[in-house]
Design goal:
- By secondary structure, the chain is of the alpha/beta class.
- It has 11 helices and 6 strands.
- It has helices at 14-25, 39-49, 65-72, 89-98, 110-121, 129-141, 147-152, 156-166, 171-178, 182-196, 201-213; strands at 5-10, 30-36, 53-56, 79-84, 102-105, 126-127.
- Strand 4, helix 4 (89-98) and strand 5 form a beta-alpha-beta unit.
- The chain is globular.
Amino acid sequence: MLNLVNVVIADDHALVREGLKTILKAQPGISVLGMAENGEEAVRLCRRLNPDVVLMDLSMPVKSGVQAIQELAGEGKTKFLALTAHVEPDHIFSALDAGASGYVLKTSSSKELVMAIETVMEGKVYLAPDISAEVAKGFLQRERSNSCDSLDSLTEREREVLKQVIAGYKNREIADLLVISIKTVEKHRSNFMKKLGLRSKAELKAYGEELKEKGIYL
């Protein structure tokens, strides 16, 4: 990590909080600003400290992690990593839809945890390998239009932008590649997300995987 990443830990178990703090303090480039034992305290702490990343347990008293993320998402620069034992699609989508940028299991290694922090700091979505299949399964079970029909509703330019996003390119790179402004890329991206019924980066990633499995090429 080139820049210092400031982290807040939110978990209702003291042993978990202290364990995570010990792990992160041993990592160069990561600083633990504070810890919270419930969702309400996490909200107050985040607003006061404005951390880069919050490790947010989902099942906490007073206010759940999902509620805390919903309340804080969009207020500042903070990225939220759901840290939980739940692998069920409903829990995963609740966290991602609330505004979490990643989902890490409490059974993950310290190396994976650091990787998750680095990933969300790069503006990407991190999903623990053990739950990626569950996300894809849950995504496919969601009510939305057939892939082919939905794609037919996209304009040629929206399809071009979608293709590059699925390929992993960032907005600025897509703008340079298609010789359009970043604002135009963002507009096309917003349009195809609405048309395809996608609500998060995780759903977009799963959608791209679904297209590939079905042999649908943009």
